[in-house]
Amino acid sequence: MPTHPQEPGRAASDSGARVPEGAGPAPRGDLPPSGPPRPEAANGEPGPDAAGPAPAEDEYTTAIQELEDRWRRALADLDNLRKRHARELERERAVERSRTAAAFLPVLDNLELALTHAGADPGAIVEGVRAVRDQAVNVLELLGYPRHAESGVAFDPARHEVVGVVQDPDAPPGTVVEVLRPGYGDGERQLRPAAVTVAKRE
Q1: DSSP calls for 99-138
Q2: In Å, how far are 7, 13, 149 from 20, measured between CA atoms?
Q3: Against a cut of 0.90, is the pTM above it?
Q4: Is 178:160 a contact under the CB 8 Å cutoff?
Q5: 55: exposed, middle or buried (C-beta count within 10 Å: 0-12, 13-18, 19+)?
Q6: CA-to-CA distance for 107 and 100, rounded, in angstroms?
Q7: Using an 8 Å Cβ cutoff, are 174 and 188 in contact?
Q8: How confident is the model over 25-51, as pLDDT tens digits?
Q9: How many Cβ atoms are within 10 Å of 36's Cβ, its own excluded?
């Protein structure tokens, strides 16, 4: 019998191998795989996936921002502390000034009382002024500034200020002969030294 030429497209059906039903065409080697393309690195290799860990630069930036926030908070706390300390210091100064002024109010009252009776008896006026002076000295001593007006004591450069040197045969050399202006306070709490004359050495 004569052999008929095989029609194109029927080779698979006429050959011994049968194609399963429902199977699609075989993938072609020149088509890319399905799905979104993966990012590639600069050298052509596949790069890290977008959902992977954050880069090291982001962690470094976050740490710098946290340190900067802490630094700013520390500066704000320090500034608030300085302002609070200044307010407390000014308040303490105001309280101390008020306490000192209140301690001298009785002295002023006695001075005004002495001036009111100035025309009565001159001797009484002198005694009144001396009493007011003693009262003021007592107030200074209570505030921590005792009076120093002693003569005949050894010269102390921390408590005395020499304003003159005299020849006094009855006083040992280097002793205070006369106090011209009393001093008040001791050491770091000294208001002023006593102005004195000192016996001259031979």
Answers
A1: HHHHHHHHHHHHHHHHHHTTTT-HHHHHHHHHHHHHHHHH
A2: 21, 11, 130
A3: no
A4: no
A5: exposed
A6: 12
A7: no
A8: 554 545 445 545 555 544 555 555 545
A9: 6
